[in-house]
Write a structure and sequence with these properties.
Blueprint (H helix, E strand, L loop, with lengths): L28 H14 L3 H15 L7
Helix pairs in contact: 1-2
Length: about 70
């Protein structure tokens, strides 16, 4: 191993913006069941589907409406 490395010309990490952070959430059972059924239909893990949906909401700037 070298005693020192030069990273002057190194590229930025292209995945830095896609880092994930584990969180604990309390979700209604029917919500989990919905995403699990979508998971079975699409073959995409249900947690990934939830993340994709929430990312889409954030990207589109959706706001909640309370009845």
């Amino acid at each position: 191993m070298k005693p020192e490395y030069d990273f002057e010309g190194a590229r930025a990490n292209p995945y830095a913006k896609k880092l994930r952070k584990p969180v604990t959430m309390n979700l209604d059972i029917d919500v989990i069941d919905y995403f699990k059924s979508e998971s079975a239909r699409t073959g995409v893990p249900y947690q990934t589907l939830i993340n994709l949906y929430l990312a889409q909401c954030a990207e589109e700037g959706k706001h909640l409406t309370f009845s």
